[in-house]
Design goal:
The chain has 65 residues and is α+β, with helices and mostly antiparallel strands. It has one domain. The longest helix has 19 residues. It starts with 15 loop residues before the first strand and ends with a helix.
Amino acid sequence: MQFKQIIGLDLPLKVLGWQDARGKVRLSYTDPGWLAQRYQIGTDADSVINALTKVLANITEAVAT
């Protein structure tokens, strides 16, 4: 929100756990890079976006294994 306050519409970031038709549990989330593009956040936020992307990937990978 420091870069563009309107992104607060999609914050806090969330992870959705759901079960597919075959019974497999899935985890989904909105990619922070996509949010940055949606709200036209400039490259000055790249380090924050990259860090958030890594954190979400690590969390979902740890939970899924």
